[in-house]
C-alpha cells in the first residue's frame, strides 16, 4: 500500500506544532469542508500539511490530488514544502494556478478542445496587439471602440462564460462589440492561439460538453483543495463544480472531497471579477457540514487584531470569525491628525526615522495608501529627507506612464525641439500616426538637420496632415498658456491633449486619471514650496531673457535667494527659471535614483491592494478620510462600502508590531485644497486599543449625526476660500456653535441647492459669515457649503 511505502503510523511528526484548529483541518475525514483562515493564521502550512497527511496515510495518491492556487509563487512554495515533508516526486502533481491547470488539461485533450497541439498562449500585451491588428484590418473606429476597452469587454464576457452569441445585444454598440468579439475568436482560432480567459473558458467547455472526460477527472481527483477561495470568479467556481460533480435538476451530486480555504473578510478584488458570494454558495450547494475557523494569529499583537475585529464586525455579509493571539497587547495603535497632507507625510518621515534609529530595518516599514496618487506627497517627503524607499509592485509617481506622457507635453510647450518628448506623445492619445510615418519624419529631420517638429511640414499626404494637426495642437497650446500660472498650464494641457478623456475609456483608467489630477497638485505644491507663489506666471525663457531677468540679481537690487518677477533664481548659475522649467527640472530629479532596488534596505510604499499577502513590523496607513478611504466610488451602496471595509481590514492585518493611522484636515484634490472629514473607519475602532497623538475632533460619525469627540484647532490652517457655488476650500475647523443658528438649519434637514439639487444636512459648523454646512447630494456627493454664499432652501 502507498501508506506502507511512506511509513504507516508515522504521520504524527507532520502534525507537530499545529494548534487544535489547524490539526482538525489537516485531519478532516472525507467530505466537503470550508476552512475560514484568518490573516496570519498559517493557512499555507495547513494546506500543505493536509496534502502530505492525505498522502502519508494512504487516503490519496499523488495523482489523485488537485490543488489550486492563485499565483505561481504560491504553487512553487507548496511544492517545495511538500518535497521537504515527504520522499516523493512532486513534479507530476496537479498543483498550480487556475490558468496553469487549465492549460495542462487542454494540452492533454487539444483535439476535443478544438485546439492545435502546439497552441500558443497570448499574454495581456500580445492579446492587445492582436486586437489592434484586427481593428485595423476591419476598419473598426478605435475612437468609439478603443482596443483596450475591447480587450476588457472580451475578458469580462469570458469570465461570465459567454461566447459572442451569448452577449446581450441591447443596443448598436453592444451588437458591434459582439461582432468584434466574434471576429477576434475567428482570428485566434485561425492563428492557433489562446488568451488567458480562453484557457479557463475552453477548459470549462471541455468538461461540460464531454461526459467521458469530465467523469475521468471526477474519478481521478478524489481530493480537490482550493486556496484563496474568496478570490474566485464566477467561471472558476463553475469549473470547480464540473470537476467535483454533476448537476441534475438543479441539484449538485458530488464525488470526492473539496476543501475550500479562504477568508471572506479579505475579498478585495471585486473590480477584477472576484465574487465573495462564491464562499456562501459553496457552503449551500456542496452541503458543507464541516467548517473550521483558523482564528489564532501568529503575526500581530492583540491591539492590532482588536482593531481589525472591531472594524470588520460592521460588515453584515460575512461568515464570521475573530482573530486572537497569545503574543499580548503590544503597542497601542497610534492615530495622528495632520493639518495637511504635507504635514501628514512629514509626520510619517519623522516616525520612520525614530523607528530606524531604534534599530528597525527600513524594509520592515510599509506605507500603505488607498490611491496611487497619494504616493506623490509621501515620495516627495522621503526624497527630501534622504530616506531610501521603494514603490512595491509599481512605479514612482514621476515614472508612471500617464505622468511621463503629461510631462512630455509640458516639455514641448517649453521646447518644441525636444524630439524625445515629441516621439512619446505624437501618437498618444492615438491619432493614426504609425511607425512608418515616424520613420519618414525621422529621415526628413535627419536630411534637413532639424527637429522632428520642424520637419513635420515636409511630410505630404494624409500622414502629413495628421502630423500637422499635432504640431498645430502644440502651437495653439503654447499660445494659450502664455502668461498663465503653472497650474493653469497643466490643467489646459490635460484638457487639450485628450489624456484624461483617453483614460476614461480604460477599465483601470480611474487610477491614471487620479494621478494626472495629482500632477496638478504636485505643481501647485511645488510653486508654493519654492516661493514662486500660487499665481506666478510661467514665462518662456526667451521672454525672460528679453526682460533682463537673467541679469545679476544683485545688480537689480534683488535678494539672490528669492524669486524674481515670475522666475526663480538658480543658486548655482544665477539663471532665472520660469516655474514651468523649474517644475520639469524638479520632476526629473525626483525620478532619479533615490528609490532603492528590490532587496535593498528601503521603506516600502504600496497601495493596500498590493499589500495583500505581505507583512511588516511597522505599517502606516494614510489618507483615512471620507471620500478617499472609503473611496467616493464605493460609498453609494452597501456592497461597495463593505468591500472598502475589507480593504481596510487587510491593511490593518499587515502590521506585526506597530500600526500608525493618519488623516489630514486639508488635502490637495484636483488643484484645490479641500477640508476633510475623517474616515468612518476610525470611529469603528475600539478606543482602548488606540493612542491619539493629536486631540480628537468630530469624525465621520458626528458628521453623520452620531457621537464624536471635540474639535482641535490648527493655528496654521489656511483661511477660508469660497468657490463660486459656495464650496469651502482650505478652511480650518470652526468650533461647534452653541447658540441657535440664524440660518435655521439643523442636522437631518432636507435642503435644496440651485446647482446640486436636493440634499440632506450632515453637519453644521461656525456662526455668522463663517457658518457652513456639510450636505450630501445624491447626484453630486458630499460637499461643505459656506452658508453666506450658498443659499440653501429648506425642503418641507
UniProtKB/TrEMBL annotation:
Q: What is its EC number?
A: 5.6.2.4
Which InterPro entries does its entry note? DExx_box_DNA_helicase_dom_sf, DNA_helicase_UvrD-like_C, DNA_helicase_UvrD/REP, P-loop_NTPase, UvrD-like_ATP-bd
Describe the location of the UvrD-like helicase ATP-binding domain by residue ranges. 16-301
What's the protein here called? DNA 3'-5' helicase
Which family is this protein grouped under? Belongs to the helicase family. UvrD subfamily.
CDD domains assigned to the protein according to its UniProt record, in alphabetical order: DEXQc_UvrD (cd17932), SF1_C_UvrD (cd18807)
Task: Keywords in alphabetical order, please.
Answer: ATP-binding, DNA-binding, Helicase, Hydrolase, Isomerase, Nucleotide-binding
Q: Which PROSITE patterns match?
A: UVRD_HELICASE_ATP_BIND (PS51198), UVRD_HELICASE_CTER (PS51217)
Give the reactions, separated by semicolons, that this protein catalyses. Answer: ATP + H2O = ADP + phosphate + H(+); Couples ATP hydrolysis with the unwinding of duplex DNA by translocating in the 3'-5' direction
The UvrD-like helicase C-terminal domain, residue ranges:
302-613
Where do the annotations place ATP binding?
37-44
Q: Where is the composition biased (Polar residues)?
A: 547-559
Broad enzyme group: isomerase
The scientific name of the source species is Comamonas faecalis
Amino acid at each position: 500500500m502507498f501508506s506502507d511505502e511512506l511509513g504507516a503510523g508515522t504521520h504524527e511528526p507532520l502534525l507537530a506544532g499545529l494548534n487544535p484548529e489547524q490539526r482538525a483541518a489537516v485531519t478532516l475525514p472525507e467530505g466537503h469542508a470550508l476552512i475560514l483562515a484568518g490573516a496570519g493564521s498559517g493557512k499555507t502550512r495547513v494546506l500543505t500539511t493536509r496534502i502530505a497527511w492525505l498522502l502519508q496515510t494512504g487516503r490519496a495518491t499523488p495523482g489523485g490530488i488537485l490543488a489550486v492556487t492563485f499565483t505561481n509563487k504560491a504553487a512553487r512554495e507548496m511544492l517545495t514544502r511538500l518535497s521537504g515533508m515527504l520522499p516523493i516526486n512532486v513534479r507530476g502533481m496537479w498543483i498550480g494556478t487556475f490558468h496553469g491547470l487549465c492549460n495542462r488539461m487542454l494540452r492533454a485533450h487539444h483535439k476535443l478542445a478544438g485546439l492545435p497541439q502546439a497552441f500558443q498562449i497570448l499574454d495581456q500585451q500580445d492579446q492587445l496587439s492582436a486586437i489592434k491588428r484586427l481593428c485595423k484590418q476591419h476598419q473598426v473606429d478605435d475612437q468609439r471602440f478603443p482596443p483596450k476597452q475591447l480587450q476588457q469587454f472580451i475578458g469580462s464576457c469570458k469570465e461570465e462564460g459567454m461566447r459572442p452569441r451569448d452577449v446581450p445585444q441591447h443596443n448598436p454598440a453592444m451588437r458591434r462589440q459582439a461582432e468584434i468579439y466574434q471576429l477576434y475568436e475567428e482570428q485566434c482560432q485561425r492563428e492557433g492561439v489562446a488568451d488567458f480567459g480562453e484557457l479557463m473558458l475552453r477548459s470549462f467547455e471541455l468538461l461540460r460538453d464531454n461526459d467521458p472526460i469530465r467523469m475521468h477527472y471526477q474519478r481521478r481527483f478524489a481530493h480537490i483543495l482550493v486556496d484563496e477561495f474568496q478570490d474566485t470568479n464566477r467561471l472558476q467556481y463553475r469549473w470547480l463544480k464540473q470537476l467535483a460533480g454533476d448537476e441534475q435538476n438543479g441539484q449538485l451530486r458530488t464525488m470526492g472531497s473539496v476543501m475550500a480555504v479562504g477568508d471572506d473578510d479579505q475579498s478585495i478584488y471585486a473590480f477584477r471579477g472576484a465574487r465573495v458570494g462564491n464562499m456562501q454558495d459553496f457552503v449551500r450547494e456542496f452541503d458543507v457540514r464541516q467548517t473550521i475557523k483558523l482564528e489564532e494569529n501568529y503575526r500581530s499583537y492583540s491591539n492590532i487584531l482588536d482593531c481589525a475585529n472591531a472594524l470588520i464586525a460592521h460588515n453584515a455579509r460575512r461568515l464570521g470569525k475573530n482573530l486572537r493571539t497569545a503574543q499580548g497587547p503590544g503597542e497601542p495603535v497610534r492615530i495622528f491628525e495632520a493639518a495637511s497632507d504635507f504635514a501628514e507625510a512629514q509626520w510619517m518621515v519623522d516616525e520612520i526615522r525614530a523607528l530606524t534609529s531604534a534599530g528597525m530595518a527600513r524594509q520592515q516599514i510599509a506605507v500603505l495608501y488607498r490611491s496611487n496618487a497619494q504616493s506623490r506627497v509621501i515620495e516627495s517627503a522621503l526624497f527630501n529627507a534622504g530616506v531610501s524607499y521603494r514603490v512595491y509592485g509599481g512605479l514612482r509617481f514621476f515614472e508612471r506612464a500617464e505622468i511621463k506622457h503629461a510631462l512630455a507635453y509640458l516639455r514641448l510647450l517649453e521646447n518644441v525641439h525636444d524630439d524625445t518628448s515629441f516621439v512619446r506623445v505624437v501618437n498618444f492619445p492615438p491619432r493614426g500616426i504609425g511607425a512608418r510615418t515616424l520613420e519618414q519624419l525621422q529621415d526628413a529631420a535627419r536630411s534637413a538637420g532639424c527637429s522632428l517638429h520642424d520637419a513635420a511640414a515636409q511630410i505630404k499626404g494624409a500622414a502629413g496632415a495628421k502630423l500637422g494637426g499635432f504640431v498645430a495642437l502644440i502651437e495653439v497650446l503654447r499660445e494659450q498658456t502664455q502668461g498663465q500660472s503653472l497650474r493653469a498650464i497643466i490643467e489646459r494641457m490635460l484638457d487639450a491633449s485628450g489624456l484624461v478623456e483617453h483614460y476614461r475609456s480604460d477599465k483601470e483608467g480611474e487610477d491614471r486619471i487620479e494621478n494626472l489630477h495629482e500632477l496638478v497638485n504636485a505643481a501647485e505644491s511645488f510653486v508654493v514650496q519654492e516661493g514662486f507663489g500660487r499665481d506666478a506666471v510661467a514665462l518662456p525663457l526667451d521672454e525672460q531673457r528679453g526682460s533682463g531677468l537673467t541679469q545679476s540679481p544683485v545688480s537689480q537690487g534683488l535678494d539672490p535667494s528669492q524669486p524674481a518677477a515670475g522666475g526663480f533664481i538658480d543658486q548655482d548659475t544665477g539663471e532665472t527659471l520660469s516655474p514651468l522649467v523649474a517644475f520639469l527640472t524638479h520632476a526629473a530629479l525626483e525620478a532619479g535614483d533615490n528609490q532603492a532596488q528590490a532587496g535593498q534596505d528601503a521603506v516600502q510604499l504600496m497601495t493596500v491592494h498590493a499589500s495583500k499577502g505581505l507583512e511588516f513590523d511597522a505599517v502606516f496607513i494614510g489618507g483615512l478620510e471620507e471620500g478617499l478611504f472609503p473611496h467616493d466610488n464605493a460609498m453609494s451602496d452597501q456592497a461597495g462600502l463593505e468591500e472598502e471595509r475589507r480593504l481596510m481590514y487587510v491593511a490593518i492585518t499587515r502590521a506585526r508590531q506597530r500600526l500608525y493611522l493618519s488623516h489630514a484636515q486639508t488635502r490637495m484634490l484636483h488643484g484645490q485644497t479641500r477640508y476633510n472629514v475623517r474616515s468612518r473607519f476610525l470611529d469603528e475602532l475600539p478606543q482602548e486599543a488606540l493612542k491619539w497623538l493629536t486631540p480628537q475632533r468630530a469624525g465621520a460619525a458626528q458628521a453623520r449625526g452620531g457621537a464624536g469627540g471635540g474639535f482641535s484647532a490648527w493655528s496654521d490652517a489656511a483661511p477660508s476660500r469660497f468657490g463660486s457655488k459656495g464650496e469651502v476650500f482650505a478652511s480650518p475647523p470652526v468650533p461647534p456653535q452653541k447658540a441657535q443658528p440664524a440660518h435655521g438649519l439643523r442636522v437631518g434637514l432636507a435642503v435644496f441647492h440651485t446647482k446640486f439639487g436636493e440634499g440632506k444636512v450632515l453637519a453644521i459648523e461656525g456662526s455668522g459669515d463663517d457658518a457652513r454646512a456639510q450636505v450630501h447630494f445624491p447626484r453630486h456627493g458630499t460637499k461643505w457649503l459656506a452658508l453666506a454664499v450658498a443659499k440653501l432652501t429648506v425642503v418641507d
